[in-house]
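Lab notebook, design round three. We kept the backbone fixed and only want residue identities now. Task for the bench partner: fill in a sequence for the structure below.
Input structure tokens:
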């Protein structure tokens, strides 16, 4: 048990071996953590739990450090299994413990665990006095589940933010300022890009709502990754930027290829962009981690996607990529499509259509060339890059 601030403790677990999350949807190359918090006031409050594969270890910690019989209240900020799984073991022994959560959280847990525990539904602005401290609840609906909320501990002024402001990261310390800050911030933007991007409009609105509450936040303690204690509002400021049609002004060129014809086209497009002073990055989608690709797309102003034609369509890694782009609902980005083919030549046209349907503003007609591109065709790719650059500056 590690002290976070006055009478608030970290009981969580660091999962050093974790390499994927949400099944195999998200990569977690730096592991992750399940941050559970304990508040020891006149009442003893447990805030969130851990994923059920780690339940036995967590129960051992609770028995040693707290004692199940000493827990007065449980706060469930979010009912997703990585935060609520161990509740089953806790409540088998103490089914009477009041659980404070949103109404939607109670509904989800009834369906998830098939138990009708002692739920106490709360909404934004509701409070719970636990002695010296007061808990203030803030709903975070659809950030990123319907039941999500945050709990502010008035007194020590710690915001227990659950998934908001978190990272999939297991560090030597539980505090951001004692870890590599560059790695922590990269994992924070990867977390936002991979999970929260579709909710950006809601996040922008909610940040303004929370700031208007004038909570004197001195520390932000999420349920994954590092706790923000050095100027903690800077991660809130980052979320405000990330939720507002964010980009870093470069272009991501993403392609898959069989015999390097499409790769040669990508190389030529890159040279065209660079000739106009535009920064760009190239990715072979079949060799790239999808979560990292989505993060780079999130940070890009422009997206140029290419594939050779196979079975009247595009290669499978590009199919997966386009599906991911569509699901993320990116805003204010420009795009183009390209590809090579042997006889039918549909890939570049279909990529163009898919990107357009995903909300990407297509600023160039799709280009495609047969077999290995000749010099004049590579020159056309070069010119695509040069023309595309005018939409980036």
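Proposed sequence:
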């Amino acid at each position: 048990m590690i002290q976070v601030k006055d009478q608030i403790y970290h009981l969580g677990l660091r999962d050093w071996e974790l390499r994927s999350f949400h099944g195999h949807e998200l990569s977690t190359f730096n592991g992750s953590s399940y941050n559970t918090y304990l508040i020891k006031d006149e009442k003893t409050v447990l805030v969130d739990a851990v994923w059920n594969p780690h339940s036995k270890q967590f129960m051992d910690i609770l028995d040693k450090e707290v004692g199940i019989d000493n827990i007065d209240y449980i706060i469930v900020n979010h009912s997703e299994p990585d935060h609520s799984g161990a509740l089953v073991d806790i409540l088998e022994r103490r089914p009477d413990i009041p659980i404070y959560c949103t109404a939607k959280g109670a509904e989800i847990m009834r369906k998830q665990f098939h138990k009708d525990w002692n739920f106490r539904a709360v909404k934004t602005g509701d409070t719970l006095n636990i002695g010296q401290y007061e808990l203030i609840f803030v709903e975070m609906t659809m950030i990123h589940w319907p039941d999500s909320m945050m709990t502010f501990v008035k007194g020590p002024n710690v915001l227990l933010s659950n998934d908001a402001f978190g990272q999939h990261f297991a560090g030597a310390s539980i505090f951001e300022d004692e870890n590599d800050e560059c790695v922590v911030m990269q994992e924070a933007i990867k977390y936002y890009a991979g999970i929260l991007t579709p909710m950006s409009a809601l996040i922008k609105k909610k940040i303004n709502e929370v700031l208007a509450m004038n909570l004197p936040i001195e520390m932000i303690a999420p349920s994954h990754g590092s706790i923000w204690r050095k100027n903690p509002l800077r991660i809130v400021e980052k979320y405000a930027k990330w939720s507002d049609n964010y980009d870093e002004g470069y272009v991501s060129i993403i392609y898959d290829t069989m015999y390097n014809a499409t790769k040669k086209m990508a190389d030529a497009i890159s040279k065209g962009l660079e000739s106009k002073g535009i920064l760009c990055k190239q990715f072979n989608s079949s060799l790239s981690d999808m979560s990292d690709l989505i993060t780079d797309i999130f940070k890009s102003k422009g997206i140029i996607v290419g594939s050779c034609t196979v079975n009247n369509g595009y290669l499978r890694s590009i199919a997966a990529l386009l599906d991911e782009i569509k699901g993320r609902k990116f805003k204010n980005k420009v795009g183009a499509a390209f590809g090579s083919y042997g006889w039918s030549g549909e890939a570049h046209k279909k990529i163009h259509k898919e990107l357009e349907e995903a909300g990407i503003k297509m600023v160039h007609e799709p280009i495609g060339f047969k077999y290995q591109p000749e010099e004049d065709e590579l020159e056309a790719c070069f010119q695509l890059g040069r023309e595309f650059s005018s939409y980036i500056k």
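Keep this in mind before ordering anything: The chain has two domains: 2-242, 251-387.
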